[in-house]
Design brief:
With about 325 residues, the chain is mainly alpha-helical. Helices cover about 70% and strands about 5% of the residues. The protein has one domain (about 50-320). It contains ten helices and four strands. Helix 3 runs antiparallel to helix 4 (about 110-145). It binds protoporphyrin IX containing FE. Protoporphyrin IX containing FE binds next to helix 2, helix 7, helix 8 and helix 9.
Length: about 325
């Protein structure tokens, strides 16, 4: 269902010499027709971004289970270890959006309105941090109980996740803390990558890149759902739509890189076990990786379909700014 809202026009837009800015007469909902069209918002959060988030989570669960099994873990220990990967990855990508894609100043649009949108996003970060920080504390405890880690690895992973929890808590008011947290998260996932690769330097690097791409994707998807979309709903003016669209596009560039990276590094790691047509992939262990190939195909379809159906955001124009232009109603008055 679409709700037509009255866009809060910036002073620049109101002062625009373009005569196309007119208001409809006194109806209950009074849309303002602006040169670029109407800012509208759908009541429901689109399904596809949520589906992507769940699919990435599932793929990570299968990956961590596969590796955990090869390392001799079983039962609850597998789930416990996966929780550490998920918490680190979600926090890393989340902080990357907070510190790198979100900008206080966006060239060419009203600075006050951009700051108001950013403030609303940071309010959401303030809420989400209270979910991420406890998960990171859990992540900090995992290395202590994971038997195969060298003492230095367990120490670094344990202390690193605890420091990251502090950085997550500081991130709403401190951009640098967020940036540091994102870098630390990549570092900690790299340490897991080394620890899980039996000292093989190539495998350590490939696994580290696989995990970094996972983190950027998962955490960005979390920020979009938990901060960008709810804040965008509260700021239905063209400047906020443009700022939101730019942030989303920065994240899309990351996803465009993460998707082929995760597929290529995953395929490389998988082919170390058996050839493409091997019965290994249908066996007790192999199905976990075969299922991941299916999940990555689902993600490709979502990535292509999302912008096609303007499903990345419920606010019209955030997915594709051209929607506002294409939708511009005829000029009256
Ligand atoms: C969004 C998609 C994906 C995510 C989020 C993901 C995530 C993960 C994670 C978290 C691990 C665990 C690493 C560890 O425990 O050290 C892993 C391992 C693995 N992944 Fe993926 N992965 C994805 C896609 C793929 C694909 C498409 C393939 C294959 C073509 C693949 C192949 C593998 C393999 C073979 C391993 C285990 C490596 C080993 O232990 O030797 N992954 N992945």
């Amino acid at each position: 269902m679409n709700r037509v809202v009255e866009p809060n026009l910036s002073s620049d837009q109101l002062a625009s010499p373009n005569p196309a800015v007119v208001t409809a007469s006194s109806t209950a909902i009074r849309p303002i027709v602006v040169p670029l069209g109407l800012v509208t918002v759908r009541a429901e959060t689109p399904l596809l971004p949520r589906a992507a988030f769940v699919t990435i989570t599932l793929a990570s669960l299968l990956g961590a289970f596969f590796t955990g099994r090869t390392l001799g873990l079983a039962g609850a220990a597998l789930l416990w270890r996966w929780s550490a990967f998920w918490a680190l990855a979600a926090s890393t990508g989340f902080l990357a959006w907070r510190s790198f894609y979100l900008r206080d100043d966006e060239p060419g649009i009203d600075a006050g309105r951009v700051r108001a949108l950013v403030a609303a996003q940071l309010e959401r970060v303030r809420i989400v941090r209270w979910a991420l920080a406890p998960l990171l504390v859990v992540a900090a405890l995992v290395p202590v109980t994971t038997g195969y880690l060298a003492p230095w690895q367990a120490g670094v992973l344990c202390a690193g996740a605890a420091v990251m929890a502090v950085l997550v808590l500081a991130s709403p008011r401190n951009r640098r803390a967020g940036a540091l947290g994102a870098v630390l998260g990549i570092g900690l996932l790299s340490v897991w990558g080394v620890a899980d690769s039996h000292g093989d330097p190539y495998l350590s690097v490939v696994r580290g890149v696989h995990l970094a791409a996972f983190a950027a994707w998962l955490g960005g998807a979390l920020f979009n759902l938990a901060a960008a979309v709810p804040a965008g709903r509260l700021h239905l003016n063209l400047d906020a739509v443009v700022a939101g669209a730019r942030q989303l596009e920065r994240f899309r560039v990351v996803v465009r890189t993460a998707l082929p990276t995760i597929a290529a590094t995953g395929a490389w790691m998988a082919l170390r076990y058996a050839g493409v047509a091997s019965p290994f992939w249908r066996g007790e262990m192999g199905w976990m990786i075969s299922a991941k190939v299916g999940l990555i195909l689902v993600l490709v379809v979502i990535f292509i379909t999302c912008p096609l159906y303007r499903a990345c955001s419920p606010v019209r124009g955030v997915c594709d700014l051209d929607d506002l232009r294409a939708d511009a109603p005829e000029v009256r008055g």
